[in-house]
Specification:
Helix content is 37%, strand content 24%. With 383 residues, it is of the alpha+beta class. The longest helix has 21 residues. The relative contact order is 0.09. The C terminus is likely disordered.
Length: 383
């Protein structure tokens, strides 16, 4: 599935010889990732083709005459499509050519020199661990270092991820974005336009039943326990009064296993709650609080007349979705649920997984709309 790369703006610059060139601002998940020239992307594409051959998407051709405004817009759109399409191949995503180019682009954009540094990684109990990194370390590498420090089994790294997390007033917690494996946390944290952001370690799966895979690792169990407590305190998970009393009793006993067994029965356990937003369903201008997990999008919608309505979109009915400029985290959660579904299908029947992958390549789409609508455009005809 495509990654959320987009190039909403470009700028003309002068080089040392008085010539002109275009600098493209590349955004990932709605945040500035790097600025690059066409020639840099062209050379990168040539390097990728030497490794992966003609399986890569087409790259925008060179222009040997001055570009008109229409031609410049067309090239910007083509480069955006190229970045989105080239990331569909997981082998490309993991390749040294792919990662090293983007690392260098990020470092150059934010004028960062590779050197030793210390980075605080916040755990779900809002305490932090301090680790030594290199400023050019990717999120994948930083996760490895942090996990080693807390004793998390290496084979379980895929169940966790690093996130940009905002701590607001009155203890409000907001997950801003999931850091991509090839992203540089040091650069992303320093360049974030969101105030009071920190790098946080959280579980990264949407199917609560996957908890059972992690229970034998002490560090993983601790992380699940901390996050469950945090989600209940922040009212992301919504236990009944009876469930809350039992959970508090297990917490006093420090019985993590019993606590998590009961927590999995709690409404919205393991869901990721997004910040309040607006949506166009069932009426334009409706306010909404979205909780995403367990193969559904649960929406608490406030209508313009202040009445509330709970609406659930089942992922089994979602054929496609559009991504607005501020709804990337929602889309990342939807893609994660789809990938988990594919893993389950593959475990049951490899042919079913092949058919499902084919369906996704034909039917699923990511369209980035540069407007101010936050919820996106999941409409009835898409369900």
């Amino acid at each position: 599935m495509k990654m959320h790369f987009c190039i909403p703006v470009s700028q003309q610059r002068s080089d040392a010889l008085g010539g002109r060139y275009v600098l493209y601002s590349v955004y990932l998940d709605g945040f500035l990732f790097c600025r690059v020239r066409y020639s840099q992307l062209h050379d990168w594409n040539e390097q990728l083709r030497r490794v992966f051959g003609n399986c890569l998407p087409p790259f925008p051709p060179k222009y040997y005459l001055a570009m008109t405004t229409a031609m410049a817009d067309e090239r910007r759109n083509q480069l955006e499509q190229y970045l989105q399409n080239v990331t569909m191949d997981p082998n490309v995503l993991r390749s040294d050519v792919f990662v090293e180019f983007l690392k260098l682009a990020q470092l150059n954009t934010f004028d960062i020199t590779p050197k030793k540094a210390y980075l605080d990684i916040f755990l779900p109990n809002e305490e932090s661990i301090n680790i030594e990194i290199i400023t050019s370390d990717t999120a994948e590498r930083v996760l490895e270092v942090a996990s080693h420090k807390i004793g998390l089994c290496r084979e379980l790294l895929g169940y966790f991820g690093l996130f940009l997390i905002q701590f607001g007033k009155e203890g409000k917690l907001s997950v801003v974005k999931k850091l991509a494996d090839f992203e540089l946390p040091y650069a992303s944290l320093g360049s974030s336009e969101v105030e009071h952001c920190k790098v946080g370690l959280r579980k990264w799966y949407m199917d609560p039943s996957l908890d059972s895979t992690l229970m034998d690792c002490r560090a993983a169990l601790d992380l699940l326990y901390m996050q469950a407590i945090q989600d209940i305190e922040k009212e992301w998970a919504k236990p009944t009064q009876a469930q809350r009393q039992k959970l508090e009793a297990f917490q006093k006993e420090d019985n993590q296993t019993k606590f998590l067994e009961l927590a999995r029965e709690v409404q919205h356990y393991g869901y990721l709650q997004l910040d309040p937003c607006t949506c166009d369903y069932p009426e334009p201008g409706s306010g909404a609080v979205l909780s995403v997990g367990n193969n559904e999008i649960s929406c608490c919608i406030t209508l313009p007349d202040s009445q509330t309505q709970d609406v659930i979109f089942q992922m089994s009915r979602v054929k496609c979705w559009q991504v607005t400029f501020l709804a990337f985290l929602l889309s990342s959660c939807l893609k994660k649920m789809i990938s988990e579904k594919m893993v389950k299908l593959a475990a049951k029947n490899p042919e079913m997984q092949k058919d499902y992958s084919s369906f996704l390549s034909r039917k699923s789409k990511i369209k980035i709309a540069k407007d101010d609508c936050v919820f996106g455009n999941i409409k009835e005809e898409d369900l």
